[in-house]
Structures are given as C-alpha cells and as structure tokens.
Amino acid sequence: MNSSLLAGFSLGFSLILAIGSQNAFVLRQGLRRQHVGAVVLVCAVSDALLISAGVAGFDNLIAALPWFERAMRLLGGAFLAFYGARALISAWRGGEALESSDNAQIGSLWPVLATCLALTWLNPHVYLDTVVLLGVISGQYPAPVWFAVGASCASALFFFLLGFGARYLAPVFAKPMSWRILDMVIALVMWVLAIKILLG
After folding, report:
1. How many CB atoms lie within 10 A of CB 133?
2. Regarding predicted confidence, which is higher, 144 or 18?
C-alpha cells in the first residue's frame, strides 16, 4: 500500500507541475483572491475523478472510441485559442492591478467555475495525463486504488498551494505592468497548447 501511495503521489505531483491552462487559471484567481477555494476544489475533485476513471480502466473505452478523442481535441483547441485571445486583449488594454481586499470587487462565482470546468474537462492533455498515463502506470503496482489516492492527494495539494500561495506575490502584482506580462504569458501558453492539441 505504501509503495503504491508514494508512487502515485510523486508521479501525480510531477505531472501537474508543468505549466498548463488549468494551472494558469488557478494562479490568476489566486492572485486576484476571487473564489480561490471553489476553484481549487473544482480542480482537485475533477482530477480525482479523472484519475479514478483511469485506474478503473476508462482508458480502454477512450481507445475504443476514436471519435471521442477527436471531438475533445477540436473543442479543447478552440476553447484554449479563445481563452488565449481574451488574455492577449487583457494584456493589450492593461490597467489591471491588485486592489486591497476591502476595495476589490469580486466577480460572479458561476462564470469563474464554468471557465475552470472548461479548462479542465475540454483539455485533451488532461485525459492523456490523468486517465491514460496514470491509469496504465497504476496497473504496475500491487494496490492501484492507493496509487489513485496518492495521485489525487498530490493534485489537491498542488492546487491548494498554487491558489492560496499566490497571495504572497501580491506586492509584485500591485503594478499594472506585472498583470500585462502575466496575461501575455497566459496567452502564449494557451495558444501553444491549442496548436499542439489541434495538430495532434
């Protein structure tokens, strides 16, 4: 049990460290201190569901339905391209800076959660990492269920640290130029991922 748990945790943590659309969104919400708990929870629960599906053998179903992978690739690529364009427009306009928690206006929860869900569930790379890769590797360990628990805990810990740790960067992002740079980086990440997804 211990070896499976530790293996799942270490591999899950190493996979999620890569900069991706989901991570960039969590970081941005953490910097703005808007609905961070809800965003972190949605990401952690989504990853746990995907990891569990992979360990349960859902990767075999994906392999049997080639149209599903193509559909996810098109939807995911289009959404990432759209989100990257929004980030670039935000960088072009500029003017955003962190406000004190007393003065900051908090946006509506539901659009934030909808964007978070789309960035998670419409990204084919998420399926490749969680469902396929972790699902296949889990079969090499004596306790695949504990492997899934370890990977899910790593995901939850990472999102918690990213979302709630972002506030320590607040002094940097009190300057509008820092937001413009972040938005340009996010736009670049989104477009690179969109191109990779659409080109296969």
Report:
1. 15
2. 144
What's the token pair of residue 5? 């748990």
CA distance 151 to 129: 11
Q: Is 103 helix (H, G, I), strand (E, B) or coil?
A: coil
The residues near 177 (Cβ < 8 Å, ≥ 6 apart) are: 94
Question: For residues 125 and 47, is the Cβ–Cβ distance under 8 A?
Answer: no
Q: Which two tokens stand for residue 65?
A: 């339905």
* C-alpha gyration radius of the chain: 18
The number of beta carbons lying within 10 Å of the beta carbon of residue 114 is: 11
Q: How far is the C-alpha of 163 from the C-alpha of 27, rounded, in Å?
A: 6
Closest CA to 19 of 199, 187, 200, 149: 187
Answer yes or no: are the C-beta atoms of 53 and 127 closer than 8 Å: no
Query: What is the per-residue pLDDT across 150-169, written as a single tens digit (0 to 9) for each?
Result: 999 999 999 999 999 988 88
Q: Are 59 and 136 in contact (CB under 8 A)?
A: yes
Determine if residue 117 is left, alpha or beta; phi over 0 gives left, psi from -120 to 50 gives alpha, anything else beta.
Answer: alpha
Closest of 14, 15, 40 to residue 125, by C-alpha: 15
Quick check: 81 and 190 in contact, CB under 8 A? yes
Q: Could you tell me how many residues make up the chain?
A: 200
For residues 176 and 68, is the Cβ–Cβ distance under 8 A?
A: no
This prediction's pTM: 0.76
